Amino acid sequence: MATCDATRRMVQVYGEQVSLDQLKSLGSMLLQRGKAAEALAKFEVVLALAEEEIDALCGKGKCLQALQQEQTAAACFRNVLERRPGCAEALSGLASLATQRGALSEAIVHLEQAVEHAPTQSDLKLDLAKCLTDYGTQIKTGGDALEGKRLYELAVQRCPTYAPAYYNLGVLHSELGDPVTAIECYRKAVENHPSYAEAHCNLGVIYKQLGRLEDAIAEYECCLAFHPNLAIAKANLAIALNDYGTVVKTEGDLIRSVGLYERALSLQPNYTEAMYNLGVAYSENREFTKAIIMYEMASSINPNFAEAYNNLGVILKDQGNLERSEECYRAAIAVKPDLPQALNNLGVLQTLQGRFADALESLSKAVEYDPSYAEAYNNLGVLYRDGGDMQKAIASYETCLELMPNARNAGQNLLLGLNYVHEGEDPKVCNGHKEWGEKFQAGFERMDLTNTLDPEEVLAKARGRKPLKVGYISPDLFTHSVSYFAEAPLANHDPERISMFVYCRNAHKDSKTMLLKKKVADRNGNWLDCEHLTEKELAVQVQQDGIDILVELTGHTANNSLGTMAMKPAPMQVTWIGYPNSTGLPSIDYRFTDDIVDPIETTQTFVEELVRIPNCFLCYTPYVHAPDVSPLPALSAGRCVTFGSFNNLAKMTPRVFKLWARCMKAVPQSRLLIKAKPFKCEKMCNHIYRVMEQEGIVQERIDLLPLAVQTEDHLSSYSFMDISLDTFPYAGTTTTCESLYMGVPCLTLKGGGHAHNVGVTLMTQLGLQDSFVAESEDDYVAKAVAAAQDLEWLSTIRSTLREKVLESKLCDAPGHVQELEKIYLQLWKRFAESNGYKNASNGSSSSTSSHLDLE
């Protein structure tokens, strides 16, 4: 009763009379508000009046603790426990003091006792869980992970809502290699503490490690929603967005990947990996200016980013900036000397420039550093081909195919290479094309044209009442050999008979492209720049355009669209002009040729059915700005005759050089002029000199010229040549036509296959076959001697040859295209009749009827 009387005793505080109970409450309030000294004074007053007041004594201990008088505070708490054993508040105070001095195990003992005596006080359980968690971290850091784990687990037992304990369990399980349990723990942490930014961040880390990028991104975003400036979360989110962008791009969603890369950069503006990947994506989306900016930024921020230099070099090369491109490749190699991609790309550039020795060094290093680098072997093959060494070229292609059996470029380069070293009728050549075509075709699904053909329209076209839709596909519609033969149909089709669609696949466009485009427009044709389309997308476009006859002009040469042809987007498909052999594709129905280059009795086999165009299968449109024909050079050179060839070196086989040497021996003082890309390289020039020296021809009789950049300069080089010597078994085509147009007759050798006989059909169109088409190698030498010995006759031919060319069937574009249109109509009639469209020929105009020479 004394205590009750004491607590009811009134004292004056702030001018007012209050009870001791009120004074204790005031002390507690002041302590809560950080006014420990004032609170202590209040508790001291209470204790002075009622020293047995335990609550005041406990409050005094707390005030002393706040005032950093730990020993005195501890004495107060112990005094309380002596008077009131098991006092949770005093035990909590002692625990707090122990925690302050780092004695966590002691604090845990006090808190365990406090919880035991006050099991309903959640704040004590929370303090115990916190203490257990901190002690667990201390123990784990000291190396005892299992004991740390036990303490964390004990913490969540004591307080199941304490998020940091779950968080630390998540960290521990993650470190122990148990991501599944770690995720469960982090999930518990955010369930109990939804704004626990670090737990969300760590969840993101685990999801990223597990490849669950979308989940990782979501967790990082949650983290930043609660903690916008957490640097590690921003960095991790940028990495996840960058990686996810690559996944999305691989799946085909290029636009979405760009957005992801851009967002990654918005989080980490100096993130060079995202810049690089954004550059790749921009490049694939043909946004080359943006790609260049990204690669330049990446290499500027990280001067050691070899891959960025390399990719920048690729774009610059494609844009024609070869000097800057080489600088980029060399910068990449300087940073990473063993980067095979940069070495390969440098070698490709040097090959384009005719720098044979440099290219050989670069490409050889590429495969030395990465013997499994299939593409580099293919490019080595191209280099050897340009250098005329077809045996090494074929071996390189075969190595590429061993490493990558489905390497399309190497497979097609190998087929092209066979034409240089084997006669066309050789079973190795024929079977090689057929086998490749069957394998390639099997990789594509044919398009279903069942419901795309209107029977009435099919019949109307077969009867000549509606124009046929004819599509031409080519990547060579610029100043390229094919363009000189493609121009005739593109510029002369009758819109009433042929509705023309041109699918231009070349990224490089020049004045010749613009000229062809205008001529197509003049014929009411449709021109589509579609180099950006995949082969599948192009096939869909062809089908949507309703093409009846699709004609590809490339064969197995570079950048072809045989994948599109394999899908058969048109009812009827044709190969023509660009390649001297079969495509091998069962999906291509016909191959256009003539009865000279592929006579009826030919033993060369083709997958396609041969359709022989009357006269010549080609129609040549000369270069409009060609220089005038020069006088016969021999007449001003002491009657010294110059033989020559501007064909590529791959066509100049050892057998060809041997025959040319025989001609030169038979014509004393004669010279040999060869112009080819690799002759910028002294090593290649010396190689040719050695080859001819082995055949008895001294270096002084040989002139070697590199390629001329300008067409006018190239054609002017014919002013040095009296007689053009054709190659075999792969004869010249464009070079022969150019030679003839510049007044230089071409001596060619008749053979058994298409590639061998192109020169024969060209010379026959001019009526010069008796003098310049040889039946044998001996006849070749004899005809060379005969022409060289009659310079006046040769001069007359030279002065009249251009006119003869222009007046011949070889340049009769209107007549050639009329025959072509007749063939298209006859083929369509045949298609209509063979597919059950009755009376396809009924009512057709007699003016379109012609004999269709099919094999």
From TrEMBL:
Question: Is Iron tagged as a keyword?
Answer: no
Annotated O-GlcNAc transferase C-terminal domain residues: 465-618, 640-818
Entry-linked InterPro entries: Glycosyltr_41/O-GlcNAc_trsf (IPR051939), OGT/SEC/SPY_C (IPR029489), Sel1-like (IPR006597), TPR-like_helical_dom_sf (IPR011990), TPR_rpt (IPR019734)
Enumerate the TPR repeat regions by residue range.
88-121, 163-196, 197-230, 238-271, 272-305, 306-339, 340-373, 374-407
Main localization category: nucleus
One Pfam family, please name it: TPR_17
Gene Ontology BP, a term: gibberellic acid mediated signaling pathway
Q: Where does the record say this protein resides?
A: Nucleus
For this UniProt record, the keywords arranged alphabetically read as follows: Gibberellin signaling pathway, Glycosyltransferase, Nucleus, Repeat, TPR repeat, Transferase
EC number(s) given by UniProt: 2.4.1.255
Respond yes or no to whether keyword Repeat is given for this record: yes
Tell me the enzyme class: transferase
GO CC annotations? nucleus
List, alphabetically, the Gene3D superfamilies matched: 3.40.50.11380, Glycogen Phosphorylase B, Tetratricopeptide repeat domain
Pathway as given in its UniProt record: Protein modification; protein glycosylation
Q: Name one GO molecular function term.
A: protein O-acetylglucosaminyltransferase activity
Which family is it part of?
Belongs to the glycosyltransferase 41 family. O-GlcNAc transferase subfamily.
The protein here is known as: Probable UDP-N-acetylglucosamine--peptide N-acetylglucosaminyltransferase SPINDLY
Q: What is the protein's species of origin?
A: Picocystis salinarum
